[in-house]
């Protein structure tokens, strides 16, 4: 909480109007650690997010926290967008569970967490359409395409990508999602070693709709800032109208065989 407060204030002092924190910024570790850290949307983490967004007059996507959901045994991995008045503008529960094996280690996120079932769009206080996602979602391009078709101009990706996947996949995936959907991508990644033997790779990035990396963090805790050229984004979408040129009527699977006359 102290680190989040310090870095959020530093970003705002550098002129940031939209600030994004990493996934599970309140706690990383064993399942016991994560369950102990979980709280409701009226808990200390979200109350802090609401207070600091109101104080600094910024839009804050408060990464994600482990949320205790009333009536649900498992936790939700929840991203909260707070506006400059300190009001919760949107909440998104991570759709895709990180049930994988990476570098000899097994991860079973679904043992503790229940996946969400809703794609969520929000808007900044200035009216810019904002698509919400979390970490492993990045590997599912259909989510980002739906957000783009719904009008997203900026997509946020709070993350705790492993060290291995950060080094080999992180930048490629972020730039791909930005290019194919002609959106800005703001990706805040955890960095360093965590309890229970986990290790996140850092290198938070801000990517523009042409796939250019506007800012990248070093391998240490800190903040990065960039200007989002929204007018330039409109020009890109006009000159290379890949979203407008989609042919959803042809995207049928499985292919339907013709019925004999």
Uncertain runs: none
Mean pLDDT: 95
Helix content: 25-40%
**Biggest sheet, spatial arrangement of strands:** 8-9-10-11-14-15
The number of helical elements comes to: 6
Class by alpha and beta content: alpha+beta
From N to C, what is the helix and strand string?
HEHHEEEEEEEEHEHEEEEEH
Q: Which percent range describes the beta-strand content?
A: 15-25%
Cα radius of gyration in angstroms: 19 Å
Q: Major sheet, described briefly? A: 6 strands, mixed
Distance between the termini: 68 Å
Shape: globular
**What is the number of beta strands?**
15
Summarize the structure.
This protein has helices at 2-13, 31-37, 44-56, 141-149, 163-181, 230-239; strands spanning 18-20, 59-61, 65-67, 76-82, 88-93, 99-102, 105-108, 121-123, 129-132, 154-159, 184-189, 191-193, 199-201, 205-207, 213-216.
């Amino acid at each position: 909480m102290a680190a989040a407060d310090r870095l959020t204030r530093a970003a705002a002092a550098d002129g940031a109007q939209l600030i994004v924190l990493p996934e599970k910024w309140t706690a990383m570790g064993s399942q016991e650690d994560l369950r102990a850290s979980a709280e409701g949307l009226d808990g200390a983490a979200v109350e802090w997010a609401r207070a600091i967004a109101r104080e600094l007059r910024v839009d804050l996507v408060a990464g994600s926290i482990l949320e205790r959901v009333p009536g649900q045994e498992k936790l939700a991995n929840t991203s909260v967008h707070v506006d400059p008045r300190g009001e919760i503008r949107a909440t998104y529960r991570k759709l895709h569970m990180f049930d994988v094996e990476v570098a000899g280690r097994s991860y079973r996120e679904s043992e503790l967490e229940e996946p969400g079932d809703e794609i969520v769009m929000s808007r900044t206080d200035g009216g810019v359409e904002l698509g919400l996602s979390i970490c492993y979602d990045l590997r599912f391009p259909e989510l980002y395409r739906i957000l783009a078709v719904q009008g997203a101009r900026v997509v946020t990706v709070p993350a705790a990508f492993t060290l291995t996947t950060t080094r080999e996949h992180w930048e490629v995936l972020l730039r791909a999602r930005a290019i194919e959907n002609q959106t800005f991508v703001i990706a805040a990644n955890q960095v360093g070693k965590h309890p229970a033997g986990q290790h996140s790779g850092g290198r938070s990035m801000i990517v523009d709709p042409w796939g250019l990396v506007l800012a990248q963090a070093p391998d240490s805790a800190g903040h990065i800032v960039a200007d989002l050229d929204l007018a330039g984004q409109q020009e890109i979408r006009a000159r290379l109208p890949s979203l407008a040129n989609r042919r959803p009527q042809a995207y049928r699977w499985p292919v339907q065989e013709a019925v004999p006359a």
